[in-house]
Amino acid sequence: MNLPPFDRRRIVFRPLSERVSKVRFPENAISPDAVPAALSQKGGRTLADAVSRIRKARAAGRPVICAFGAHTIKNGLGPVLIRLLEDGWITHLATNGAGIIHDWELAFQGRTSEDVRLNMARGEFGTWEETGRYINLALLVGAAEGKGYGQSIGALIATQGLDISSGAELRRHAAALLDAEPERAAAAADLLAAVQEFAIPAGRLVVPHPWRASSLQAAAYARGVPFTGHPMIGHDIMYTHPLNSGAAVGRTALRDFLLYAEAVSRIDGGVYLSVGSAVMSPMIFEKSLSMARNIARQEGRSITTHYILVVDLAESAWDWERDGEPPADNPAYYLRYAKSFARMGGTLAFLQADNRDFFLSLLHALA
What we know:
Layout: E1 21-24, H1 41-59, E2 64-68, H2 71-74, H3 78-86, E3 92-96, H4 97-109, E4 111-114, H5 116-122, H6 129-145, H7 149-159, E5 161-164, H8 167-177, H9 182-197, E6 203-206, H10 216-223, E7 227-230, H11 246-264, E8 271-275, H12 280-298, E9 307-312, H13 320-323, H14 336-342, E10 347-352, H15 355-366
Parallel strand pairs: 2-3, 2-8, 3-7, 8-9, 9-10
Antiparallel strand pairs: 1-4, 5-6
């Protein structure tokens, strides 16, 4: 049967201010000066090695890429990572779609993380107007301007608003670009469709972000540090809103993936930190490294001296550094966040720790 798709315009959305959120700023923010819990003896040795490699990488002008899951933001680590950016230790940030949203909600209202069980029972999980409207509109505008996913949201937070072109301006813009830059013309047409369907007025749309000082995306945008977003369609609450555009998500996320891949292409002699990301980080890293090696091989180069540190709250019963990849009948074989990285060459280390303790320990050791 040729069934019609779900009509999101029928959903009732409520103001984000009415939602009960479990994480609040500044109460739950982690100060860069906070004292972390002590790592295990092995964890301490692994951290010391990572610190030495980060110092060496930055002295040589090599990248230090940090990819992390959404709990890094929910755990209040924005201020800690901002300090690492300010001190020049991290050169590229990458997270999933949820990490982007949590950082935006904290900057917008100082609260994030809803009660999923409660709101699911009511059919209200993810149906919050401002999150859906502003994030999706920022991606539509960003796509038309040639921005990436993270840069689009970072600009929204840092500048506290969006510049919306009129329908007539977007028509002229799309027509002018059609021959020379058809992709940009299509992005302008997508924004035009949203402006018309949702009667979005032209001009400056002011969106205050009172807590933007703790926003990692805003800090990265202001400092020109790449912060790339790597979403998956349907994984995040922004997809419930009718303003959501698959084309805008695709354009901005693809640009971010290629920006990330460019950073990975320079990883020889550099450092890759993968913190609390079971799927996103290993998946995008392996594709990017393969692409980079394809080109490096054509140029007579190799990418073999990179260092990968995988940090996760779960303890690994398998010694990935000593024993390599486990056999398929061992449960550890199915730990994607460890197995994929074990296949990437270079030097791999695994550190079991709470991300709060890891990032604080890293910051203090580098100070």
